[in-house]
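Lab notebook page, bench 4
Experiment: in silico fold of construct C2
Operator: M.H.
Input chain length: 70 residues
Purpose: comparison with the prior construct
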Amino acid sequence: FAEIAGNTYLTGITSGGLLDHSATFATRVSLYNPWIDETMAANSIPEPSSILLMGISFLGFGVSRFRKSS
């Protein structure tokens, strides 16, 4: 912990932001008193289609079951 201008801060690396992936996050890296502020925007990562994943899993189960019955 460090006390700066009457405020107590946790030193080290701390981050904050919203759970919304389009939000901007702030990260502070510190060695006691001097603060380094860096603000970055989170990159969007496209997620695969749920229906495609479900279809692939059903296909895998079907192939597995077919091999066991043969």
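Observations: The radius of gyration is 24 Å. The chain has a mean pLDDT of 68.
Next step: discuss at group meeting.
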